Amino acid sequence: MHKWLLPLLGSLWLAGCSDNNWRTTDVSEFMPDLDFELVDENGRDVSAEDYLGKNTILYFGYTHCPDVCPITLAGLATAIRKVDAEVRDDIQVLFVSVDPGRDTPDVMKRYTNYFGPQFIGLTGSTAQIDELTNRYRITYEYGDKDEEGNYDVSHSSAAFAFNKQGEAEFMIRDSDPTANVVADLSRLAKRG
């Protein structure tokens, strides 16, 4: 047997036994735990601790988004509908607005209700949003206002999945097939 073959087979075996073989992107080694202080869609002050005990998907966007946000959230809703019922009940999607000037708690609640009961809108002050987006390396930028005062917000579109203890596990991109997202959400739930 070649002397390079044994280490290769060993590393392949270890990779196959790894607990973090996500079909999406593993971020467990470099993303921080879930941590924030914001306002929920019911106007209550909340922190990350209020959402521990369920698997959590964290997504940043805004309700006036013409394309990326509704497509991403609809994709997450589709994936959640495809997991087993007991898994579905153990998932929450925290939709954090990067446009707190327009996205009041009431606006957030109406928006998240469209996607399903697992979706929860969060907002806060610009300082709170900036602290959280910096924590997860999310970028956003406001466009110029038009004559009516409307504007777009460019922002990152990845969603982050955390386990029940609030530890980062994997990242979901728009390009990830729904089947991969479903498989990873199911696997995350089984890990407890």
TrEMBL record:
Signal peptide: none annotated. It comes from the Bacteria. Keywords: Copper. Gene3D superfamilies: Glutaredoxin (3.40.30.10). It holds the Pfam family SCO1-SenC. The keyword tRNA-binding does not apply. InterPro entries: SCO1/SenC, Thioredoxin-like_sf, Thioredoxin_domain. Residues 27-192 form the Thioredoxin domain. Belongs to the SCO1/2 family. This is SCO family protein. It comes from Modicisalibacter tunisiensis.
